[in-house]
Amino acid sequence: MKNRVFILILFLLTFLGEFVKGENGLFVRREGVQFKLNGKEFYRNGFNAYWLMYEASFPSERQKVTNVFQEAASYSLTIARTWAFSDGGSRPLQSSPGVYNEQMFQGLDFVISEAKKHGIKLILSLVNNYNDYGGRQQYIKWANLSKEDDFYTNPIVKGFYKNHIKNVLTRVNTITKVAYKDEPTIMAWELINEPRCSSDLSGRTFQGWVNEMASYLKSIDGNHLLEIGLEGFYGSSTPDKIKINPNSYQFGTDFIANNQIPAIDFVTVHSYPDQWLKNAPGSAQLAFLKQWVDQHIADSQNILRKPVIFAEFGKSYKVAGYTQADRDRFYRLIYDDIYSSASKGGAGSGGLFWQLLSEGMDNYRDGYEIVLKQSGFLGKLIYAESRKLSILGR
Question: Most buried pick, 15, 235, 322, 351, via CB within 10 A?
C-alpha cells in the first residue's frame, strides 16, 4: 500500500512538473536578436487596437473584441498591442492613484481571455505620453504639480506609476483565474506610449526613469518581456544619426542608449512619414521610410543585439496628397524589409499596423484604420506577408 501511495505521489509530482514546464514554455522569450516560443523562432505580424479594454468593459459590446480577434487570426495576425491604462476622466481604469474601476478591469480580463482563445499574444502599454486616456498629465494633476516632465523625476508621481505597475501585474484575471504576471498570453509590457521629455534633450532624465521603472517592473514579473514604447528617434549618444530623424527631431529620448538598458528586452519603432513630413510628396515619404526602417533594423541587429518590432505604422487617407497606391507601397516596403531580416534569422521580427477595427466601429475611424473585410488589395497583402513571416522558424 505504501509503495502504491509513493508511486502515485511521484506520478503527480512528475505530472505537475511537466505541466508547469509546459506552461512556462508558452511565454515568448528572447535569445539574442530573436524571439523564441517553445524553442522555435517567433516572427509575427500584428496590429494595434487601443480600444479593446474600453469596449470590453461594456458586456453588450464585447462581441467587437471577439470579432476583431477572429478576423486577425484568420489573416495570420497574432500580436495585438493595446492599452492597459485609462487614468482619470470618464470611465477610467484608475480613477485616482491606486483606486481602480472593477468594471474596466474586468474588460481587460475579457480581452486577455479572448486573446488566449484565438492564439493572440498581447503587448500591454501601461501609460500614455499624451493626454488621451489621462496620460502623464493626469499623474501630474494628481500630485498637484504643473510641469509634465516632472512625471519622470518627482518621487510622488513615480510612486503613483509604480503602484499602477504593481496593481496591473498582480491582477488576478476573473475569467482565467491567472495573475497577469503569470499569463503567457501576454507577450510583453510597454512602459509608456511614445515618450517625450522636451525639458532635457540630452536624454539623461528619461534614461534614469527607464532604468528605475524597468528594474521595478522586473522585480515583480520575471516572466514577461519588456519594451519602452519608443518611436525610434536618435539622441545624444549617437549625434551623427540625429540627421536620420525626420526634420532632425529630438524629444529627450535616445533610441540607442535607452534600448541598451539590460532590463529592456526588445526594441520598438514607429513610422508616420505622412505626419512627420507633411509637405513632402509620397515618393519622398517612401524614400524616408526605407532609410528609417533599414537603419533601425541594422542598429537593432548590430549595435543593440535585440529584436525590433515596428510597433506602429500607417498612412492616413485624411492627409493631403494621399493615394491608395502610395499606401499599398508603404505597407509592402515595411513588410518586405521585416521579412528580409527575419528570413536570415535577423532582428526584424514583426510589424503592428495602426489600427485594426471590426465592421460597424465608425466612431473609431481616424484615417489609418483597416477593416480587413473591406480592405481589398491591402488586406490580401497583409495576409500574404503575415502568413509568410509566421512560417519562419517552424
Answer: 351
Q: Establish whether 41 is a catalytic residue.
A: no
Catalytic residue among 55, 227, 231, 312: 312
* Average pLDDT per consecutive 10 residues, the chain (394 residues; last block may be shorter): 41 36 67 96 98 97 97 97 96 97 98 97 98 97 97 98 98 98 98 98 97 98 98 97 96 98 98 94 95 98 98 96 94 98 97 96 96 95 97 81
Active-site residue flag, 194:
yes
Q: Which residues partner with 308 through β-bridges?
A: 267, 348
* Domain residue ranges of the chain, discontinuous segments joined by +: 36-391
Residue 173 DSSP symbol: P
Residue 9, all three cell numbers: 505521489
- pTM equals 0.93
Report residue 326 as a C-alpha cell.
Answer: 502610395
In single-letter form, the type of residue at position 29 comes to: R
From the list 55, 183, 194, 227, the catalytic residue is 194
| Crossing angle for the helix pair 282-299 and 324-342, to the nearest 10 degrees | 20
8 A C-beta contact, residue 68 and residue 49 = yes
Task: Say how many C-beta atoms besides its own lie within 10 A of residue 379's C-beta.
Answer: 16
Which residue from 351, 229, 244, 239 is spatially nearest to 290, judged by alpha carbons?
Answer: 244
